[in-house]
Every structure is written in structure tokens, then in C-alpha cells.
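Sequence only, no structure available. Ideas?
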Amino acid sequence: MLMEFHAVSRRAGVMLIVLAGLAGCQLLRPSAPESRAVYFVEKMVREPAAVDDLRAVMWLADDQLPDSFVADLSTRTAMLYLRTRHRQGASLDFSSTVRSSPTTSRKMVRVTVRESGAGKLAEPVQFDVSLEKRDTEWRVSRLHID
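Reply:
I predicted one. C-alpha cells follow.
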């Protein structure tokens, strides 16, 4: 009887530790839409030719290329600037904040790109990334500069 009690209490203790660990991980990690938005902008800046990787996080028609999301002049100019700075060896830092959530299936995430170090040339660039959830998957549906 005493051995059963120890076995049950040991299982309960292990279960509590596992649950606490999972809860802690969820608090430390950004939500899926935020991480998708940062991944998308970082990939568009550093590896724009990685079409398959970009398609995996975008709602994109089969005949479209990822660069079609960089449609307006101000967004295209900012993207070209950041790509050029990356090629020149600038250190770029990417961060995100949720701007708004009009519905449970749509989110707007602001991704800020900053140059770090002594050689920075410009103010941070802020992209607004619209994400849409279909079924259980968040993907980018629009990219623009506010």
C-alpha cells in the first residue's frame, strides 16, 4: 500500500514538472503569427531566392512569386535597401509586436528591422505583416510599410 502511494505521488510530481515546463516555454516563446512574420521578413531580406521556404509561410497563388508581396514603391524601396545593407555586411536585428487582431483568424504584426553597431546608416524600418489563419495554419497574406 505504501509503495502504491509513493508511485502515485512520484507520477504526480513528474506530471507537475512537465506541465510547469510546458507553461514556461509557452510564456517565453512568441506566438506562431509573430514568429512567422519575423521569419518571413528575415527570409525576404536575407534569402529572397529561397522561394520554397517563403511559399511555406505565405498564402500565394501557384503563378505568383514571393516578391509579388513587395508591390508598392515604399515597401519595395525599404526591402531593396535592407537587402543591400545585408549584402554589405550590416548587422540586422529583427523584432516583432502584434499591432492588432481584427478577428481570431487575422493578425497584424509589426516587424521592425534595426541596424546594430557603429556603422548604422538609417532609422529602423517597420513592416506591417498581415497574417491569416486557415484551418490551423497561420500564413502571411500581405506585406507593406505603414
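The radius of gyration is 21 Å.
Hope that gets you unstuck.
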